[in-house]
Amino acid sequence: MADPAPGRRFGPGQQRSRQRPAERARVADPARRAAYTVLRAVADGAYANLELPAVLRAQRVSGRDAGFATELTYGTLRLRGRYDPIIEIAAGRGLAAIDANVLDTLRLGCHQLLGMRVPSHAAVAETVALARQVNGAGAAGFVNAVLRRVSERSPDEWLAAVAPESLDPVARLGVRESHPAWIVKALREALLGHGRSARDNVDVDLAAVLAADNAAAALSLVARPGLSSVADLAAAGATPGRWAATAATWPGGDPGSIAAVRDGRAAVQDEGSQLVALALAAVQVGRAEGPQRWLDLCAGPGGKAGLLAALALDQGASLVANEVSEHRAELVRHTLRPAIASGRDGQIEVRVGDGREVGALEPAAYDKVLVDAPCTGLGALRRRPEARWRRTPDDLTVLTKLQRELLASALDATRVGGVVAYVTCSPHLSETVFAVRDVIKKRPDVEVLDAAESLRDKDGHPLPGAASGRFAQLWPDLHGTDGMFLALLRKVAPTPS
Questions:
Q1: Fewer CB under 10 Å: which end of the chain, C or N?
Q2: Candidate list 110, 298, 375, 425, residue with the active-site label
Q3: Torsion over CA of 327, 332, 336 and 341, rounded to 10 degrees?
Q4: What pLDDT, on the 0 to 100 scale, is given for residue 210?
């Protein structure tokens, strides 16, 4: 457990601050200030997983304080749906009447009081000091009053107040597990639609999925074959991953301390993402003349492309990594530098272009195509907790149209005998099962392969609990990975009508 009061412990050789106690109370400790800085950046559109390391470095927060800041930041982001109604009761006013900066400070205080083992007096005093520094003296008094009211009840007492038995079951579960109601409904439908749950046990499984979204995800690393190995990562302190032969789990600290990660021969990557890339690389395609050509249709920011590039080199194939945005294409180029340097000229290539047009521009040109389609990210809420508050049902209208267009283009770009892997980091039925069915019902030239059979662990066994008919769906609570969906589609010669 992180230090409940970072910056307040003194070891051998350390001296207490020369400030008087009253003066010290007016200055926020670095860990809490860092967490506040990240929350404000997230409110402006940043991603916590990218922002937090930069803030910790910039503010020189390390060690135990960095651990505390990480737990505070992510816990607050995950559980704000639980804390916001508590704040409304304690403040005696709606959230709209509270300044956004002050509201983030209150959320940080609530998480210390109700979600961490921080003594109440320390949680209140330190958060008030933070408010005084970043929100002003007047706001500090308001924060003090609200948090003292919050501290008067236990977490269970507050849950009973904001999520009573009389509340609609979906709304109640949404408050208790801090998810918007539309996501709770979508995940319930996904559990049924993917065949994981029956109606008599779906609510139990739903609670498990939601709880998993609120648990910190272990940091997973990928050893890109031919460039590094799991043994290299283990030598640096990692342990082999649970499922993928390329995966390792990092116990904590900066993974950039590992030489292979710094050099781009290994990287941080969820194990589920590794599994779907490995499945595509392993699937057999019909005979082709010369080396195989692979395509990553939506490659940015480059995680799966990095693994595919290494696998392509290992198999003597070439890879084109396509990305519509020049900025994201540059991120892909950076990721692929070791693979580009290791391959022959042009074997690994990064292009900028609209994936929806590739099928028309390069028909039947590729043996394997990955469609890692933009999606709601409902399968990655452990690692990107802010996504649950940013996404809305309206996003589906744009995303599902794009997903279907990309998949159709990928099929056009695939030669007869080749295979398309359609992947999303979401179990939402509209982005997964329905998307694939909508496209292939108009395609007599497509055969659906058994994706669950192809999704194998490092010992060669199919992953338990992943089957969704002939598709595959991973679940954070079952597999400890992001909720990745995989469909494998073989291009075949159309049957004459």
A1: C
A2: 425
A3: -30
A4: 97
Residue 375 among the catalytic residues: no
Q: What is the DSSP string of 94-107?
A: -GGGS-HHHHHHHH
Residue 5 lies in a domain: no
Q: What is the pTM of this model?
A: 0.91
Instruction: Tell which of 107, 132, 155 closes a domain.
Output: 155
Q: Give mean pLDDT, residues 43-60.
A: 93
Tokens of 201: 């046990």
Q: Is 90 part of a structural domain of the chain?
A: yes
Q: Is the pLDDT of residue 14 over 80?
A: no
Tokens at 356, concatenated: 């929806």
Please name the residues in contact with 333: beta carbons below 8 A apart, sequence gap of 6 or more: 340, 350
In a domain, 291, yes or no: yes
In this structure, are residues 246 and 309 in contact, taking their beta carbons and an 8 Å threshold? no
For residue 280, give its domain range. Answer: 270-491
Residue 271 backbone phi and psi in degrees, to 5: -65, -30
- Alpha-carbon torsion angle 421, 425, 429, 433, nearest 10: 10
Please choose, from the candidates 438, 449, 447, the residue with its C-alpha nearest in 3D space to the C-alpha of residue 488: 449
State both tokens at 306: 């990095």
- The count of domains in the chain is 2
Q: 477 and 335 share a domain? A: yes
Q: What is the mean pLDDT of residues 85-111?
A: 97
Query: Which of the listed residues 85, 120, 155 is the one where a domain comes to its end?
Result: 155
Q: How far apart are CA 283 and CA 458, in angstroms?
A: 15
For tokens 């918007």, what's the residue?
Answer: 180
**3-class secondary structure, 179:** coil
Tell me if 237 sits within 8 A of 251, measured CB to CB: yes
- Could you list the beta-strand ranges (E) of 176-306: 219-223, 239-240, 247-250, 266-268, 293-296
Task: Give the CATH number, domain containing residue 428.
Answer: 3.40.50.150
Per-residue pLDDT tens over the stretch 117-149:
999 999 999 999 999 999 999 999 999 999 999
**Distances from the Cα of 66 to the Cαs of 75, 100, 109, 214, 366, in angstroms?**
14, 25, 17, 20, 46
